[in-house]
Design a protein that fits this description.
about 375 residues; alpha/beta; Rossmann fold; six-stranded parallel beta sheet; four-stranded mixed beta sheet; 16 helices; 15 strands
Length: about 375
């Protein structure tokens, strides 16, 4: 059993399904063709979280038959990921969801239709990105590049359109979209950091203003990236744990006969694989301000709401309903020589301790954001996520 078999004429779907592998319910080739010709979504950051979450919920949306476009992934930092984890497998991957009851869900993800290296060093890839950013159909660009991925400095600002940091490359591509007719676009961070859309906006603004000051771009480009009817930078809250590939999962896949179970370690110390192992629970709450439409990710479980509500959800998670519980368990677990959070959850004293932190200490100070119930959120942490 190998991922590339799925696209072959001799593919035996029954064998995979008999072993519990969920296969795409849509025409993979047709979606890839439609996406190439009329792209709607580009994502920067080809790491594990992207394949396990944004790409996976798009896969679910495609399975409904109510949408027909995939996502194009661009990697701006570690190009080995593209060469070793994407292209050898025709951009297919396997999502292995570890359930709290001990069962495992195995789902083939085929929603990623192209994988590109976001750097001018790779001429064909960069030319394709320029073409995509010039397309009127492009609706949004998303990111999982970690909080430090939004950084910039004077040296990179001075490089102009040849900037090497992610935000500089993004701004250069936005300039192509500006020249193509000041086309609208939404830049949606899905990184796990507070008010993440502001990080994107700060980076783009820094590059655009410096380039205008240096006479590299016209002043109208600065107006374009600041015009909320053209470009928006929504906030989001994302929550899903996707650890590096684990040997227990590899062994399970090997026992199934699934051969693409190797760990890939790049020179930049990225740990990846043709599969991603992740927890079953996930949340993506986005501020619904899109200037050119958006893919219907609500079909895969994403929630769309106001900026205020996104902020309340993030505050609920970080200050009361998840982070303090997990941190407390980790600290006391280390003191008591536990090596797994799941093992701690079998300790009646520790479990009761975490329940008291959540239900007794947290609830009086938490604000109910409305879209996610705090009691249910904590219940999921205690009964599904930590176990």
């Amino acid at each position: 059993m190998k991922l590339n078999e799925i696209l072959s004429d001799s593919f035996n779907a029954a064998e995979w399904e008999a072993k519990g592998y969920e296969l795409p319910k849509y025409d993979i080739a047709a979606v890839a063709k439609k996406t190439h010709d009329e792209p709607t979504w580009v994502h920067f950051g080809a790491g594990n979280i992207f394949r396990a979450f944004p790409a996976a919920i798009l896969n679910d949306a495609l399975n409904t038959g109510k949408y027909d476009r995939g996502v194009i992934v661009a990697e701006s930092f570690d190009y080995e990921i593209i060469d070793k984890a994407y292209r050898p497998y025709n951009n297919l991957s396997l999502l292995v969801s570890l359930q709290s009851n001990g069962t495992i869900e195995k789902k083939v993800i085929a929603s990623i239709t192209e994988s590109l290296k976001a750097d001018k060093l790779f001429g064909e890839d960069w030319a394709r990105l320029v073409q995509i950013f010039q397309a009127p159909t492009l609706q949004m660009v998303t990111f999982t590049i970690t909080e430090k991925g939004y950084s910039y400095n004077d040296a990179d600002l001075a490089r102009g359109l040849d900037a090497v940091f992610a935000m500089g490359k993004l701004t250069a591509l936005l300039y192509e979209r500006y020249k193509a007719g000041k086309l609208p676009l939404t830049l949606q961070s899905t990184d796990n950091c507070s008010h993440n859309g502001d990080h994107v906006k700060a980076g783009v603004k820094a590059y655009a203003e410096r380039w205008a000051q240096d006479g590299i771009v016209e002043a109208g480009f600065v107006d374009y990236i600041n015009d909320s009817s053209k470009i928006t930078y929504p906030w989001s809250m994302i929550d899903k744990i996707t650890p590096r590939p684990h040997e227990k999962v590899q062994a399970m896949l090997a026992e199934d006969g699934f051969e693409d179970n190797n760990t890939i370690i790049t020179e930049k110390h990225t740990f990846t694989a043709p599969f991603v192992n992740a927890e079953e629970v996930q949340y993506l709450v986005c501020e619904d301000t899109y200037t050119n439409g958006r893919p219907p990710l609500e079909l895969g479980g994403a929630l769309y709401t106001s900026r205020k509500t996104v902020d309340e959800v993030e505050t609920m998670k970080v200050t009361t309903c998840l982070n303090p519980l997990h941190t407390a368990m980790s600290i006391y677990g280390c003191m008591l020589d536990y090596t797994l959070i799941s093992a701690e959850m079998a300790d009646e004293d520790l479990r009761a301790f975490i329940q008291k932190i959540g239900y007794i200490e947290a609830m009086p100070v938490v604000t109910d954001p409305g879209v996610l119930n705090p009691y249910e959120f904590i219940g999921t942490v205690i009964n599904k996520r930590l176990p």
